[in-house]
Amino acid sequence: KKGSCVATDGPIVEFCLEQDGRVAHLGDVLTVHGPGPVSLRATAHTTDEFGPVREVEVVSYWQGQQGREPRHTVVKAGGRAELDLDGRQGYCRLQAQSLGPDGQGFCCFTNPIWLRVADGQARRIQVSFD
Fold this sequence. Notes:
- This protein is 0% helix and 59% strand.
- It is an all-beta fold and 130 residues long.
- The strands form two sheets. Strands 1, 4, 6, 7, 9, 10 and 11 form a seven-stranded mixed sheet that branches. A five-stranded mixed sheet has the order 3-2-5-12-8, with no helix packed on it.
- A hairpin with an 8-residue loop joins strand 6 and strand 7 (71-76).
- The protein is elongated and about 50 Å long.
C-alpha cells in the first residue's frame, strides 16, 4: 500500500535518500530544503546462487528536466556518482542484474523514492553503492 517493495528473481537491492538527518525509503517522499547535501546510498544482498551484483542503475526523472525519458546512471560496486536534481520534484529508483555461476541472469527492480525540492535550489545527489 505504501509502495515499499521490490520485484526480483534473485538478488535484492535497496536504497535510501537522505538530507540533514531526514531519511526516505522505498515509497517515501523526501522534502529537500536547506543547504545540506542529498545522498543516495544503495546496497545489494545476494547469494552464491544468484552471483554478485557488480553495478546498480539509478533511474531518475525530474519534472522540468530536458527530455521526457528517465535518466539512467550506472554505478559500479564500491563506486560513486553524482546526479543533477533538476526541477522541483521527481523520483529515483534502482535496477540491478547479476549472473549466477552457470551464466543465468537475474534482476531486481525497486519502487521509487520521491523527492520534492521545497526551496527551488539546484542540487546534486551524491550516489554511493557499497
